[in-house]
Amino acid sequence: MKNNYKLKIICLLCMVTAAFSSCKKNEVAEEKILTNNHHNFAFTGHPKYHVLGYGYDATGRLANAESSTIPVLNVEKFITENPGLFRQNDDVNDYFQYSYGENAESYSNKLTQKYHLSLDLNFLKVAKLFKTELDASFAKKDSVSSKYIYATIRKMIKQKSMRIYFTTENLINNYLTDQFKADLVSLSATDLVKRYGTHVLTDIELGARLDMNYEAQTSNSKREEAATAGASISAGKIFNVTADLKTNSVDASSNYNQKLYYNTVGGDGSKGLIGELALDNSTIKMTIANWQSSCTKDNAALINIGQDGLLSLEDLVSDPVKKQQVKAAVEQYIIDRQMVLVPEKYTPSPVGVYYSQGLNVWRYEFNIDNIPYLRDGSWQYKQTYFSAFKVQATGTVPVYEYWAPTTNDCLWDRNGSISSDPYWHFGGVKFYAYATKQPGTVPIYRYYHHRSGRSHFLGADPGRPYPQNEWTNEGVAFYAYPPQ
After folding, report:
1. Which of 398, 409, 415, 452 has the fewest CB atoms within 10 Å, i.e. is most exposed?
2. Total Cβ atoms within 10 A of residue 2
3. How far apart are CA 453 and CA 327, in angstroms?
4. Phi-psi region of 384 (alpha: psi -120 to 50; beta: other; left: phi over 0)
5. HSE value, Cβ hemisphere, 13 Å, CA-based, for 424
6. What pairing do the DSSP bridges indicate for beta strands 203-218 and 425-433?
7. Taking a C-beta distance cutoff of 8 angstroms, is the pair 207, 157 a contact?
8. pLDDT, tens only, 232-255
9. In 191-212, which positions are buried (b, 16+ CB within 10 angstroms) versus exposed (e)?
10. In the record, which residues are listed under signal peptide (predicted)?
11. Are 483 and 384 in contact (CB under 8 A)?
């Protein structure tokens, strides 16, 4: 049964992907519908209280009922006997949530820090929760490369929220389910955690949610800013979603290999959306109106967990020996399933050299696919004089680019503070290279065209460019590898 279900999902994903690939330039894509969206699966927990009081796996999906398990608390009994300790808010509210990171580890840490998890503080410093969220949201496997930046924008449609106020002593003495009490005796701590998860849900929000998950590589040294800017721009262009996120589009200008993974939670599953878009050359636009209009209290799903809404499973164990065993089992369970960051195997990439005879200026770029003006016919590709790094490898330093709008000249320097000169506008990190000679590297010289007073050039050969008497050699700018 489960295999048939997965097969259906795979087929549906293929259909959606094929539909996207047929969209033409500047075409507004029709709203893509995924019947039986696997993020809108039928499980809703208790008919009235949803997953309040259920177990929850904090290594799983973020605020998703897929990661809930089975009841730990008899919530119905608790509310009947303690109506003043239960709060339900039925106000409908739209808002946004954000997560971002300079790499997968940073992203996971920020998700972890969203909650007061009632775990040991020293353990929380190294724990990286919600690995399954990374795997599912960004189509990752067991390990995640450090070369990617990540950001998520969540459009939240809250329909209602529910929370219980309690003391753990009262819960232990009066409101544990009979099954949980029996399992406390019969199961080992490890098996108990496998069955119930790491935590118990005590504060939940129900409604619908659109997740827009942005992934890219970047040469911007401010990687978190590059991630948030890229996500904000993508959400606006594709879904016409204006998130209340302060970003600067310049921070995303050095992003490449960009992808957007999106999915809906809650609402009518037959109108839900799920898919993946390559962004670098995409002009697809989508609408969420059909799905959004289907979102009601009746089809509300778990979309958020209160900051204090996760109670660690060990806190519901009274026996001190078993309590310590469960604590250790929870921590080991998290360690075994946490995200593993794979360091990037840094390799230098060739830097292309482009020249405009009309302007008498030079440009240095890894890839001009997203730089239209270099493809307008007025620029000539010369050759590759050196190879540098797109991301900061050990021992390298940033080489900054400055641009003079009055002359179109560019300057490259390891000094990041010459932008105080009003002639130059700071353009950010262009690439990474070495400040001193390293095995296999060659010196890259900077030249100034004193005859025109407006052009700079980088090259490995101290005899370049020609005619030599029109250029001043300003010395070694940095060290880089020869062309590859």
Report:
1. 415
2. 6
3. 70
4. beta
5. 20
6. unpaired
7. yes
8. 999 998 998 877 777 788 889 889
9. ebbeebbbbbbbbbbbbbbbbb
10. 1-21
11. yes
Indicate the DSSP class of residue 317: -
Paired tokens of 257:
């290999």
Write the pLDDT tens digit of every residue in 325-366: 999 999 888 888 877 666 666 778 889 898 888 888 888 888
pTM > 0.70: no
Rounded to whole angstroms, how far apart are CA atoms 365 and 256? 12
Structure tokens of 155? 């459009």
Residues 398-426, buried b or exposed e (16+ Cβ, 10 A)?
bbbbbbbeeeebbbbbeeeeeeeeeebee
Residue position matching structure tokens 């004193």: 450
**Cis-peptide, bond into residue 467, ω within 30° of zero:** yes
pLDDT digits (tens, 9 = 90+) for 89-111: 999 999 999 989 888 878 887 77
Residue 118 pLDDT: 58
| Separation between Cα atoms, residue 95 and residue 71, nearest integer Å | 29
Instruction: Output the DSSP codes for 339-390.
Output: -EEE------EEEEEEEETTTTEEEEES--TT-GGGGSSS-EEEEEEEEEBS
In this structure, how many other beta carbons lie within 10 angstroms of the beta carbon of residue 258?
Answer: 23
